[in-house]
Predict the structure.
Amino acid sequence: MGSDADNWYVDDLRIYEPPLHDLALTAVTPDLQQFDAAETPAPQVAVVNMGRSTEDFAVVLTVTENDLPHSQETVNVTGLAMNDETVVDFTGLALSPGKYYRLTAEVVVAEDFVPGNNGGSAIIDTYTGPHTPLGMMDHQRRLRPCVQANV
């Protein structure tokens, strides 16, 4: 048993006092979606204040295209109260055909007692053409080679 309502258990329920400062990034969207290169999806990041203090902070979104730098944007948020959640909107992405994009977001704040929940990521792509299923490739591998034409 602790003090100040920390780690008390009543009927198997844990009673505790949340940390003074704790922002948590809960979602990065869109995630696991496919887009045409002409589309400009606008990423969003959801952040909840799990601490006891009203917080001012920044959310940084870094985008890579096939693991190479693509873009980075920072949005400042002010006055997020305890237990409140906000969705931060970012500028639409200019996409190229046939690419994978990783969206990595991070909450940047002066003080956070639980920093392990300050980041998240999502993946989108613009591979809209037909794909050869791996099962089909494995099946074709077992066939005899084709006879060369025009020999």
